[in-house]
Amino acid sequence: MIYSGKAITVTALDNGIAELNFDLQGESVNKFNALTVDELKQAGAALKVADGIQGLIVTSAKDVFIVGADITEFGNNFSADEATIAAAALETNKTVFNPIEDLPFPTVTAINGIALGGGLEMALATDYRVMSSAAKIGLPETKLGIIPGFGGTVRLPRLIGTDNAVEWIASGKEQRALAALAAGAVDAVVAPEKLREAALDLVQKCIAGDFDYLAKRQEKLQPLKLNDIEAMVSFETCKAVVSGQAGPHYPAPVTAIKVIQKAAKMGRDEALAEEAKGIAKLAKTDVARNLVGLFLGDQELGKNAKKWARQGAKVEKGAVLGAGIMGGGIAYQSALKGTPIVMKDIAQAGIDLGLSEASKLLSKSVSRGRLTPEKMAGILNKIQPQLGYDNFDAVDVVVEAVVENPKVKQAVLAETEQQIREDAILASNTSTISISFLAEALQRPENFCGMHFFNPVHQMPLVEVIRGEKTSDAAIARTVAYALAMGKKPVVVNDCPGFLVNRILSPYFGGFMRLMKEGADFTRIDKVMEKFGMPMGPAYLADVVGIDTGVHAGEVMAAGIPSRMGADFKTTHEVLFENNRLGQKNGKGYYSYEVDRKGKPKKVVDAAVTELLSAVVATPKEFSDEEILDRMMIPMCLEAVRCLEENIAASANDVDMSLIYGIGFPPFRGGALHYIQDMGLAAFVAKADQYAELGESYQPTEKLREMAHNGDVFFA
């Protein structure tokens, strides 16, 4: 044994070959935590002085190679100043990865499973890479707001060329084996069971002199092979394209290009110093902090959901009441992920619409090569359409998705309860109606909860699982288990008007309609909020959701929380609704809609809307971008605070992750509570106080004032 640690062992094999094996104890995957990095340093030092070693293979004892850096350690690593972070990054490369690359014999990595981030960078430090045909590799760091820090921006361009490397690094996408081979990132692709054998064979051929490993190594040590004109054209073109794709809020992809460009004429060691400066600069940004927080928040969300799911029985078969677009979407998602589902409606037209929705979504996957026609047929066969309650005694969870009318829902739920087993769970997909109220019609309210999907079901990851006054833990657990089985991200929330996401969104629309009343231009508001990072502005969002849906939701919210959600004026939503401008669903709302070349609705400004709204809108008034942003965001953020204080959500993370996954709150801003914290609680309270005369929705809670005074935060 040349070296033995808790994450790495180095063993002498036959014929002068050594094997460096990653096997992090106590973990299901290998990752570059502080322990592993330190042990790799020691292992490299031991290999350098080991007697009789002529070659090295690098392997993993786990099902994956290395998943990347331990992101839980980023907070501590990035807490220092920029210069200190850069120095630490450069030191890691000099003392950990460079020594592996500089070993006095050939080195080959056997890539199994996945090798992401630091995992791929480890492989790049060796002379050759053999990859399993089932494996994937990639450098996803830009998705966390940073760039590769273990030499990825230096070694990858020198192996696969500037354009390919920029595409890999800027996009952060995973690459399959054949694509990696074609690009030159790996040297061979073999069947998984032949991986180790192939790595040993390659290193033996290097030892025998069949391959010039030193020449291969030299490619990574020397500057990029580009003349000045080639470099200028390549890098400037890349920056223009990537900047347009990434947008102004995500600096990491363009920073990666700039780092590669600066290092183009440098040797390895100088180039690594540029990489260290780049990662240090990004590590201190709010974007990186929030994107790293998003990754960790997603993990926390998943852990909490799995805890719930472990307490509940598996859902072998589901059912949805009410077909149509929403019911069809739920049926599609359940069947796609492997859970058979009954789709019931009272009319054949509804069944036809639901099946059409599922078929349309599956056909798209077939046309894109993601599904075969045979698999599509198999998925459709998991959807059982019917007009009656046949076989409902075999169903574990029933999701009610009928019209958003309390009396209709109560009647349907009560009827369905008589057709299912006593231990089966009833869930309502209502977006606004109280779960406790709907439960009043049931004999077993403990087996009833909300299961609120967001539209379109196949695209929106969030599912709110809503606990009513009498909902049991067993009902929550099984519903969460079903949501997980459907590939969704469930968040357990307590019952209240609008639940969590729609309740927080309601004051946002309230701010929008008050701005409109005072003379703001809705197209200008949309532009400001889209510039802020929202996927669409409030007027456009209202059209997509449906003006009728928005009016109905507004009425429910106003009845439930009149002091903040009610309007003492006629809103622009109401005017559009009265004039049958329902949004995209009938081609006219705040905007009018035309079909573009791809068959999708394209919004266009309609002068008739301005005239129509003139009765409830004041003389046009110019508002600054800052005031528009403040008046939209303050009520939304304060409602998020209230939901946390009132225990509607269990944690600040649940609040922010729900907004990101439910309405597309800008990920780089981290969520409403992160937005407050990044501004500073005291600064946010002071800003809100400037608008206090606009009403309660702009007035901070006493607890928030206390937190601001004490210097408290939502996230440590």
Written overview of the protein:
One of its GO terms (biological process) is fatty acid beta-oxidation. This protein is of the alpha/beta class. The chain folds into 3 domains: 3-284, 2-enoyl-CoA Hydratase, Chain A, domain 1 (Alpha-Beta Complex), CATH 3.90.226; 315-494, NAD(P)-binding Rossmann-like Domain (Rossmann fold, 3-Layer(aba) Sandwich), CATH 3.40.50.720; 502-710, Orthogonal Bundle (N-(1-d-carboxylethyl)-l-norvaline Dehydrogenase, domain 2). It is built from 31 helices and 20 strands. The strands form 4 sheets. The chain has an 8-stranded mixed beta sheet with strand order 13-12-11-14-15-16-17-18, sandwiched between helices. Strands 1-2-3-4-5-7-10 form a 7-stranded mixed beta sheet, sandwiched between helices. A 3-stranded mixed beta sheet has the order 6-8-9. Strand 16 and strand 17 form a beta hairpin. The mean pLDDT is 95.
